[in-house]
Amino acid sequence: MNSSKASIAIGISQIFPCSYLDGQQEQLLVIQEDTLDPILFERLLAVGFRRSGGSIYKPRCPRCSACQPIRVPAHEFVPSKRQKRTLAKNQDLTWRITSEQTAEQYALYEHYIRERHFDGPMFPPSEDQYNHFLFCHWLPPTFIEVYNDDKLLAVAVTDTLPNSLSAIYSYFDPDEEQRSLGALLILIQCRLAKLMDKEFVYLGYQIDENRKMSYKRLYRPYQILTPTGWEYSQVC
């Protein structure tokens, strides 16, 4: 075997307790590859896969189908009245995009996990966990940073692909909860995708049964991946 060739591994994970729904069991279809073309990765996104570190995964749970891939058509997105209020109350903030990983970003992530997710699988936070979760060598992420003057308030870690943006993870200053910074980051991603002439913003999995994971339906219109393909929501 030629060791210089890229290797690929495809497999099914062990069944383990679900991180999102109590009493459910979780199992993943996992693809691990030394290198992956962004065009191919975008095709995998379009059939329901996501990225965690350098691994590509898709739920393959034995008795549950609660995780629904969801995406927003960037050029069709229209902020709701509530989202317009979120934008208005954060007009004093500025944002920028960068490819640079900084200690300031990690410090904010650590504060966020300790305050908001101390009862979850990402606690306690560590730099090794942070790096393993967010980064892969074949697709360096984009960081969308939100500032109040010189203070970093929020970060959206985002994959920039030929035809889309894919939201990997967002975190923010838990002491600024009244600003709705999580919502603001999604609104910025939708705005950025439109400015960059991208077709979609992939938001990951919509899980209606989990209160913390049910917010993605607020960004309309959206599309849900069904067994027959992507379908538009019923917009109210």
UniProtKB/TrEMBL annotation:
Q: Which organism is it from?
A: Shewanella baltica (strain OS155 / ATCC BAA-1091)
Q: Which family does it belong to?
A: Belongs to the R-transferase family. Bpt subfamily.
Q: What EC identifiers does the entry list?
A: 2.3.2.29
Q: What is this protein called?
A: Aspartate/glutamate leucyltransferase
Domain N-end rule aminoacyl transferase C-terminal: from-to ranges: 104-225
| Gene that encodes it | bpt
Localization, per the record, is:
Cytoplasm
Q: Which InterPro entries match?
A: Acyl_CoA_acyltransferase, Asp_Glu_LeuTrfase, N-end_Aminoacyl_Trfase, N-end_Aminoacyl_Trfase_C, N-end_Aminoacyl_Trfase_N
> What are the protein's GO molecular function terms?
arginyl-tRNA--protein transferase activity; leucyl-tRNA--protein transferase activity
Please provide the record's keywords in A-Z order.
Acyltransferase, Cytoplasm, Transferase
Alphabetical GO CC annotations of the entry are: cytoplasm
